[in-house]
Structure formats: C-alpha cells, structure tokens
Automatic annotation (TrEMBL):
The keyword Membrane applies. Keywords: Membrane, Transmembrane, Transmembrane helix. It is a multi-pass membrane protein. This is DUF423 domain-containing protein. The keyword Membrane applies. It is found in: Membrane. It holds the Pfam family DUF423. Belongs to the UPF0382 family. The chain crosses the membrane at residues 42-60, 67-90, 96-120.
C-alpha cells in the first residue's frame, strides 16, 4: 500500500505543478478572476493532499493501520471530487460541477478524521 500511495503522491504532485503552470500561463487571460481562483483552489488542495499522501506512504512502512490506509483512499477520492470538480467548473463553466466540490471536501475531512483515529489507536497500543 505504501508504494501505491507514494506513486499516487508523485503523480498528484507532478500534475499539480503542471496544472498550476497551466493556470498561471494558459488560463490567466482566458478565465474570469472567479473561475481562475476556483482552479487555483483545486491546485492548492491537490498539493496539500499530495504532500499528506507522501507522508502517509512513508508512515505506512511503520504501521499498516487500516485507519491510515483509509485516510489515503479518502484523500485520493477527495482530490478527484474536490479538485476535479473545480477544474471542470473553471474550464467548462458548467455550474453543476459546483455541488460536487463539497462532497470532495467532506472526503478530505473524513480522511483527516481517519488519520486522527489511527493515531489515537496507536497511542492506545491497538
């Protein structure tokens, strides 16, 4: 699992750089300030969770807690839904992508809660 999360973290980080550059150089003159900001928010959260997934992948070498593994999957799903919906909204202007974004946000939060539960169980020795 550690290797898979490490690979995904590298992909998310690399594509985050590409998408950020695309927004900065390719979209700046083409999108409204609001849509550009939405796109950049997607990039920011993708990066945060790429870094979190990277750290988690390293930690999974020490502990294979189901809670930690769940965190990784929840964060990945969050990136797809949260960041992906913001990218789609910004690039297409289709408003129905907007309601998908909070679902991704809830998945991000669930991933962090799962990490918390896993950390608390480590302290409890189970």
């Amino acid at each position: 699992m550690s290797q898979i999360f490490l690979i995904v973290a590298a992909i998310l980080g690399g594509t985050g750089v590409m998408l950020g550059a695309f927004a900065s150089h390719g979209l700046k003159s083409k999108l409204s300030e609001s849509l550009l900001s939405a796109f950049e928010t997607g990039v920011t959260y993708q990066f945060y969770h790429a870094l979190a997934l990277f750290a988690l992948a390293l930690w999974l070498k020490q502990s294979q807690s189901v809670w930690f593994v769940a965190s990784g999957y929840l964060w990945l799903a969050g990136v797809v839904l949260f960041s992906g919906s913001l990218y789609a909204l910004a690039l297409t202007g289709v408003k129905w992508f907007g309601p998908i974004t909070p679902i991704g946000g809830v998945l991000f939060i669930a991933g962090w809660v799962s990490l918390l539960v896993g950390a608390m169980k480590l302290g409890a020795g189970s």
